[in-house]
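User: Good morning. I'm curious how zinc ion would be positioned relative to this chain. Could you predict the structure with it bound?
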Amino acid sequence: MKLFVSLATIILLGAAVNASEHQEFGYSGHNGPTHWDEFSKTCGTGHAQSPINIVPGKTVSMNHQYDVSLHEDVHTTAKVIDNGHSIKVTPKMGGTITLHGETFKLLQFHFHGKSEHTVNNKRYDLVAHLVHQNPETKQLAVIAVFFEEGKNNPMLDNVLGNVGGEIRVDPQDLLPNDTVDYYHYVGSLTTPPCSENVQWYLLKTPMTASKSQIEEFRKYYADNERPVQELNDRAVESN
Ligand SMILES: [Zn+2]
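Assistant: Good morning! Here's the predicted structure, ligand included:
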């Protein structure tokens, strides 16, 4: 009998440990960014974390011209979900970008209720992160598109009006006309597991979203942005 009780206790303890392991990260309180090292050590100990504050006056010029060609102009169906951290759009067949000769495929894009990266400490109203991966090396490259309040964006209407459903999208509709001017540096995922060696390309030209679209997004997520991290010995390149 004693043995039975002990076993039951062990099983119960085991279940309790599993429950906390599977708890989701959040943006405030005991699951907030200062506790993310409990989900992944890298979030607390990494020295090349994202996001960061970009100081345009302190950027270095690119020592070689990155060949960033965006080929996102594909019409595809995409699933729109609320994944508990953001509104995420997963195209069935995304476009690609070419970075210095390597092709990265678009895996998904999602939004943050305020921009995660700041420019001279300015936080934009919204940001879209287009997450790409080189299928061979598995390396990630994220294109960040800032949004400021202005004209309505039809793509956002399509996304926000169909959370939980499927839409037709052309990811190109998320990009400003000028995709040639950007900041580049090497950072991390901005959510656990905070994995490093992520290539970040932050487009300098913002897109616009209407006030009501920004408010509509923030009904889902008003503060799903990680605080800015130390730059440490990294350089931010600008062209
Ligand atoms: Zn993101």
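The first helix runs from residue 2 to 21. The pocket of zinc ion is lined by residues 110, 112, 129, 190 (CB under 6 Å).
Let me know if you'd like a different ligand tried.
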